[in-house]
Structure formats: structure tokens, C-alpha cells
User: What shape does this take?
Amino acid sequence: MTKVLPDYNGGSILNLASSIAAHFGLNTGYAPLTQPLPFDGVDRVVLFIADGLGQGQLMRHIDDGDAPNLKALLGQDTVSTTITSVFPSTTMSAVTSIHMAAPPAKTGWLGYTLWLAEVNAVTDMIALTNLETGTQLENPEFLKTQLSLTARLEKLGVQCFAAQPGAYKGSFLNDWYWQGAFQGGYFSPNTIPSLVSGYPKMEAPQYICAYYPDYDTVCHKHGPGSKHASDEIAALDLCVARLLKTLPRDGKTLFILTADHGQRDLDPKKVVHLERDKILRTMLRGAPAGERLSRYFRVQDGMIEELEEYLKPHAQTMRTPEAWETGLFGAKPELETFKTRVGDLIAVAHDGIQFNWTFAGRKTASTLLGAHGGWSSAEMLVPVIGLRV
Assistant: This one.
């Protein structure tokens, strides 16, 4: 597996967010995209985030005839390039980086599950539950470490709108992500065009962010190389085409399609149930966190070399001091507690392998056919397509 590291200096989703912010007069402190987008004269930016749609997947779907509208879009007067996700290449880190215009090192959202020193437990960062006990975090406000992009844009007079699943409205994450924005909720992502077309007419500069989660969900269940993924990209493809038709043809709108990360296929016969490995557990200070493709281990004193050797058949490893020193998370940690969230050792699974962990008394962790979170090109490389309409 070829390792692809995030390019926070101008070639990542963080820099895309910085480019959008800079267009509206907001300096995030991070570089804009090295590949410039056609912002000149634009008053409305529409960002469409296709969760899980890696660059390799997009091109394969186009070659297979699954996405004729996206193929036609690339054939128009578009600006297109390939950029990286953040690390880990997972929604909780990547989407948070986009919505905060800050890297994981600054947001503290360093994975789907994290060991939080503040509550002394491994925590599900979507449900905000203590995975040891299954209980909700009582006071999660400490997790809001940054002011959202929309909150900062709203202060500059930019009208901000979100098109996302209606079920998300009122959640901790959405209230944080979309502070200063109107939260439009849909039942099906295929109705994004109607939702966006119903937003108020432009009386000030506008930023609209539409989020399409279902492609990622289907790829988790069936694998990104499956026929099911082809079915779902066809729906996404039509959604994009219909959305473009709803946008005013006044030359003042920039439509941008991107993804938070890609996915890679997994072999259901290569599941490693970490909690069943008695030797492994003697080396750990508690349950691992992170992703099934990039686990964070808290290691017993003096046992890190032994654990590295033990994991060699299953993963590439990196000690977390090296990860921070080399900028894997995008910067120095905003808070010292962020260092503890990623433990002592990062293990990125080899091709086909997934690391599962089932907490005591809980249902056995599911086996997925597609996932992300590591540093393979399939997970890390995502498209950016910009079209002036």
C-alpha cells in the first residue's frame, strides 16, 4: 500500500475551505488551494460534499458509464484537480475540518472514536456516547474548540445555508457546524435540488453547503467496487445534474464538487477482532480508539517496540510523537489533551484488513466491505471540480 499523506500546504480539503473563506474576505490562517478556482465575480458559492467519493472511485464510475452527468461536467469549462483528505481520512475529522476551516490538530476531532481524557473513556464522536458504559456525555461543550466557518462568514454579512439530512437538525454537531447558517433538512438527498432552489433569493453574498451521505453508507455496506456503489453513484450523478439546473445562470455562482475522503474495499475474511487477542491486550492500557483502518493504541510502558513487531503482519505503524512532529494532523495540537486522544501508536491496516473491537456486553462489531480512515491513495485522494454558472 502506497502511503499518501495530507497536503495541508495547498492541496487538501482544508485548503479548499480556506479558498472559499478567502473569497468572502475571511483569512483562516491556512493557505488557499494551490490550484485556483474561478472565484472572480462570484457572489454565491455552492459546495457539494459527496461523502466517500474518492478520486479513483469517481473516475472508475465514469469509465463504467455510471456517472454520465459528472463525465459531462468534467467536459465543460471546469477547473478540476485532485487533493487530499486530512488524517485520519474519516468523516468526523474531514468534514469537521471543512466546516471549521481548521485541521484536525486544531479542532481536536481526530477520529470517529477517541479516548477523551476529559471523561476517561473511549467515546463515539458522532453519538457522543461513552463506549465503555453506553451513556451519553453529559457536558460535551468542551468539544467545540473552534468557531465554525459559517459563524465567521455570517459576521461578514454572508448568508449561509446548509442542505443536509433532516434527522441531523438539532444535534450537537449540526448546531456547532452550522452556527450562523440556516439549516435546511431533507428526507432524501435526491431532493437536495428542490431544497436549495427554495432558499431565499440572493440579497447578499451566499455560501451554500450540500451534503450527500448515502454513497459512503452504501460503500461501507457493500464495498466501493460493488454494483450497489454503481447504483448509488447514478443517483448522486442525477442529483448533481438537477441541482445545477436549479442554479441561476447569471455568471455569479460557483459550483464546487468535492468529497471528504474515499474508500477502499475490505475482505470479510480478514477481520482482526482485537478484543479476542489475549497477547495484544497485555500490551495495552485500555481499548483502542480511532478507525477500523487506523487504530490508536495506548501502550503499556516499555512495550511499544514489542507491539510494533506484533502488528507487522497486519499494519503499518507510526508512533504518535512522530505523527505530531511531521504534521500528520496538520499542526501542533491546539490543546495538550489532544495528544492523548491518539494514544502512543497508530496502526494503519494492510490491504483488505479491518481492526474491530467489541466492548464488553455490546453486540459484536459489524464487518464492513468498504471503509476509510487510513492513508492509502483510495482513501486520501478526492476530487475537486469547480464550474462557474
